[in-house]
């Protein structure tokens, strides 16, 4: 059994007769509460004050295609990409969205054609991000429809492929799999940040999505951004957001600008944001692998290392989620773990086998340690 320091349970709730905490732990969402400690430590360095009279207009920047984009936010987005080296920003239009969720829909709208005879097919390789199918189909759009696994797509029709790299749920780096000349691509790079994966080169695609939710951990701010090569596509995405929410909260954009600025300003410090978060992810993966490898009930993906241009060394991926497989005769890993009060998302939601589950590794220290303790108990 893993020995867990008692301080990690300081505020925990119910305990069973043997003194072990027995509450349900919810790891089925990728809620990035892990980052709160860092931002508390930053104190006023990431605080902004917004007076009552500020940010009142709908409009932000008349000179930008994206007229509701706050210039300060756009500036900090470009600066952070230059600091991290994870995306080419030259020759790109920045489009801000209410989370990258809104930008996924904006991109589907922009890439589809109102004159097409059939809705365009939207694909992603299994295991894909579990929200894609419902995001694509919930409005029964006449413009686009969910087509499932990109690996098994063999129809000679136009398509949009969602390429998620590193991938949610399994953490592997990905490229397009359909690879046809006329294929339209959306690169969802929510996790292409140094704490999760080696930054091997600056991404240089037509339409790339990022989000504050996974980069800095500010999911509640609801800010994402797209880097878009084609002017007409950027215009159509802006139009979608105009029709959908008449822009994106200025207060959130200003706050996001400050958070990104804090990261860039301190990027060379000993306790920089990426060093701090890299160390936590490294520690968590080490502990998780040790527990999983101590028995034969579970297994985890194996990754190869690559040279990270940000940290200037050879590093292994350490994804935000663990794509855990139940070995042996456990067919439904999600129900099995639910029986042990661990809530996860089962493989079927990602188009894959129920032998897999996705576990969030971005939760609080307390929940993570509780997870380790439970997995360890189950195995022994
Ligand atoms: N894409 C991927 C791959 C994600 O994992 C998420 C969040 N779970 C999103 C998009 C949406 O993120 P948000 O709307 O919070 O920016």
From TrEMBL:
It comes from the Eukaryota. Keywords: Aminotransferase, Pyridoxal phosphate, Signal, Transferase. One of its GO terms (biological process) is amino acid metabolic process. Its cofactor is pyridoxal 5'-phosphate. One of its GO terms (molecular function) is carbon-sulfur lyase activity. It holds the Pfam family Alliinase_C. Belongs to the alliinase family. PANTHER family: BIFUNCTIONAL ASPARTATE AMINOTRANSFERASE AND GLUTAMATE/ASPARTATE-PREPHENATE AMINOTRANSFERASE-RELATED, TRYPTOPHAN AMINOTRANSFERASE-RELATED PROTEIN 2. Homodimer. This is Tryptophan aminotransferase-related protein 2-like. It comes from Cicer arietinum (Chickpea).
